[in-house]
Write a structure and sequence with these properties.
Length: 363
Amino acid sequence: MQYTIGELAEALGLEAVGDAGFTISGLSEPGQAKADDLALASTPKYAEALANGAAQAALLWADADWQALGLRAAILPARPRYALSRLTNMMDEGQGFTPGIHPSAIIDPSAHIGADVSIGPGAVIGPEAQIWDGSVIGPLCYIGWRAVIGRFAYLREHVSIGAKVRIGERFHAHPGVRIGGDGFSFVTPEKSGAETVRETLGAEGHTKDQHWSRIASLGGIEIGDDVEIGSNSLIDNGTIRATRVGNRTKIDGLCHLGHNVVVGNDNLICGQVGIAGSATVGDFVIIAGQAGVADNISVGDRVVITGGTKVMSSVRPGKVMMGYPAIEMKSHMESYKALRRLPRFLRDVSELKKAVLNARTKD
């Protein structure tokens, strides 16, 4: 896969500097770059490593002195990391999935398969499923009864989509994604010990021997357009209403969205995040790695939840939350600083006590 510097710059809406006809065949970090690579030296610090490689062209920053760096050509974006998004997609050769339907795929006669759909080896497409134009269904994927997948979806290997799940256009699922398992919903004939503990905040313990009855999940799942889900993440069906994920939301690997969860548009949900049943998350929310959101609470628009944070109560829009239990980041940092000073404070108190006792003894 080869492009001229001019072609790459044009794709980014920029102008190339230097030799726009210079051809590159790959992207590389500066220190490992070959002569036909575009070195990714987006800051002066990264550019220091150019001397260790053989790059003749580089992606730099807006006002970089590319000639002083000894380059033949360069691209100078105002936001290099955003430019990298477009460049990497242009250079991505994919997974080598072949076009067409593999002979070993099992497709129910009642399923609808759109134009230019690729279905890989061992994939199973269930009754009345709909896969629309331009989609790729990788090896060993499963698409359940009446599931709907919009145009230009890209499902990597071992993705499972359960019955009646509805997914919009340009959906991207990485290996091992599981969408459409039942929610973790169980109930006891009488009030359970878990309910009592919650109501009394632990004043009364779990004292009853009880058995659990399963509540079936009838609500399905609805996923919007341009959603991406990372490897081995799970989304559970709703109980009566659907579990929902909004447009353009990106979910990292090893995440779990419980039954009835509603996630809005343009969210970024990082690795190992858990969102418990019936929680609602607004638009433009960022939830960093290993954070957790308790059930039946709401997180407002434009909230940032930092890594490892445990959100136990609803959060108003625009807040930045940190800690366990979550409090505003500013307050958490003040508490953390105070905690670090605590040993010194205790030593000071001990010295004061000794001084007071000595003074009394002398009196």
